[in-house]
What we know:
By secondary structure, the protein is α+β, with helices and mostly antiparallel strands. Helix content is 57%, strand content 11%.
Amino acid sequence: MTLFWIVCAVLLIVALLFVVLPLWRATANNNDVLRDAANLEILRDQSAELETDLRNGLLTQEAFEQGKRELQARLLEEVKTTGQSVKLTHNPAKVLAVVLAVLLPLLAVPLYLTIGNPKAMLQQEVLATADGFGIVRSEAALQELEKKMERMPENPDGWLLLARSYAELQRFPDAVRAYQKLVQLVPNEAQLWADYADATAMNNNQSLKGEPTKFLDKALALDGNNTAALALSGSAAMERGDYAAAITHWQKLVDLLPQDYPNVQMIHDGIKQAKEFLAMQKGGKQMLAQIDAAHAAEKAAAANPAMAISGKVALSPALTGKVAPTDTVFVLARAANGPKMPLAVFRKQVKDLPLAFTLDDSMAMQPQLKLSGFSEVVVVARVSKSGTPMAQPGDLQGTTASIKPGTKGLNIVIDTVVQ
């Protein structure tokens, strides 16, 4: 940050030199030269007029000689005046130079603090301490990051980096503290609540009961398709013996994950075990049949080609230097004319680009707002620096024109920086 202000000071000095020095060097002598040149030109014109009048007979020879002598005398007087150094006691150019030299620095700093972003360099300093996975592993770097966060406690990027680093180093009490601060700054991000629940559970003998479950409910209320929240909510339901809820969460999770997901078989095994436990309870078989019927209906609705939108998303090569592999990518559909809340959301990371996507009614954030309920929608692909679906300055995005639900084969290029 100190280097930034030094560079700003150097640039300001250079700007002052370009503006102030020419004004300071300006003197009244320049005005004297212009005045003398004008006077000499007048004398030449008058001498030419005398010669013309003599040729035309308007002057006698004696009158002509008298006029020439007077002009020569005036010419000698002008030459004497030019040889003298005439200086103004009050030079306006120098006064203006002094005023600008004082006012420019005084106005430049408040102007930058008003319309600029003083925290931008601090944010880069914070992120620079992390490795390629967004984790600070060195104890010295972690201590440095802690000191920076004391100076800028309102920076969510710094708290996120600190929380993830604490969790990776198994410093769970510190991770809980960092996530607590983070969700206060960014309260509407489902992934943060899911991570907060995970860290709290690890700090609570790996139990998801109590506060972790509340945090997971908050995450799913914000994003019902958040895979981390669904996975942990299924585990929390198993822990408290709510096998129906565990089956529901994990079945939805399997539907959202790609078929080649490494741990998908483990989730299937968990669903199978939950079904066995539920079947042993009174009325469990009937409840299991209802769960399976509801799940089948939901999958059928999601598979309906009249409702689903599909396509591919890629990042413009011109913007590759502006993103990190772990930056969040949202592909979402919203009504072309209507509420701005997304009707369906698909979430990945920059490292997954280019990627194929499908948006359908099963990805609705609210049951009453689905793709099938609108005649025209707009699909947006966005790289979110904050990790939230809402657009923020500095995010990168690409959008489609208005399309109808059921459109296939979209090609979206993320090529615009959000202002």
